[in-house]
Amino acid sequence: MNAEFIRALDVIQEEKSIDKEELIQAIEAAITTAYKKNYGNAHNVEINIDREKGDIQVFALKEIVEFPENDHSQISLEKAREFDSNYQVGDFFRKEVRPRDFGRIAAQNAKQLIIQRIKEAERNIIYNDYLERQDEVLTGIIKRIEKGIVYVEVGKLEAVMLPSEQTTGENYQLNQRLKVYLLMVKKTTKGPQVNVSRTHPGLVKRLFESEVPEIFDGIVDIVSISREAGSRTKVAVKANEPSIDPVGACVGQKGVRVQNIINELQGEKIDVIKWSDNVEEYLANALSPAKVVEIIPNKDDKTAIAIVDDYQLSLAIGKEGQNVRLAAKLTGWKIDIKSKIDYVNQHQIKNQETSANQDDILLELKEELELADESIFEDECLHDDELNFEN
């Protein structure tokens, strides 16, 4: 070890962003392991490296006891006090030693351990770096596709995009540049593994944040997102300032802002709707682009009936129920779509049934009253007969 070696550590610290002190501590630990491997585990040693000159010192450590049983690890109190009168039983006697050929042996045995520690330090730095960027959007380049798994180069490593995180209908090509959502970072024996996604709703949210300054600045908030990746997404937004139109801010002049996001998502349709604390208004907005005539909510179980004109029925429901399904997921309400005619007819039938039921009840009541009158009449006649008999 010398000053040149210390300068080399300075270069590693600058180029690889690995803390110099952490490297020196790793080297000290590696040399300690090398020493024990060559001179026996019975020897307790402490390695110190001069941080400026790079000089290395080896100190033998022995526990101070009254009656030593192991000369390699113990020393008597009497002998220890020959060097320092302040020693007590239980202290450790520390003496510098200079083992023969130690420099060569230490270098040979510690080399791989030092390299390993450097790699571990690099991996930890990369892991922590990507951990801080979790739930963010990264721009990457597709480097390979194997068995349906897409490997995307994002900075210092290859991220994994599993088939379940790939958008149906998107074609992925080698060297294609695309934006991905950093889903998860985990440690493995081979280093950090980063999983990314193109289907997560968070991708849409981050794209809006980067495209719409009002969202980034907190003037407009994204309240909720419901997404069927590759097909359609609904985004509910609200403004924190009365003068701001949240939908207009997100769509942009001539739809430029939202169109940039649609292009990034390769044509996925996006509905930007205005959030409202008025349930009827919010549910009606969520069913956009369909026009809703009336919302009849049941707040007890969060269900609602949405009444639309007949020609709007298929639009409100959407292809295979997609529109109403996304609206329900966006709002957290179960929504039943009814055409105006069907709803009116249904209520007419219910009213007729109710009227018929009322007529039946009145008829039954009338019959009961008639029977009661006959019973009373019979009782009166019987009473008169009894009076006549007594007379």
TrEMBL record:
CDD domains: KH-II_NusA_rpt1, KH-II_NusA_rpt2, S1_NusA. The keyword Transcription regulation applies. GO terms for cellular component: cytosol. It comes from the Bacteria. GO terms for biological process: DNA-templated transcription termination; transcription antitermination. SUPFAM superfamilies: Nucleic acid-binding proteins, Prokaryotic type KH domain (KH-domain type II), Transcription factor NusA, N-terminal domain. Participates in both transcription termination and antitermination. NCBIfam families: NusA. Belongs to the NusA family. Monomer. Binds directly to the core enzyme of the DNA-dependent RNA polymerase and to nascent RNA. This is Transcription termination/antitermination protein NusA.
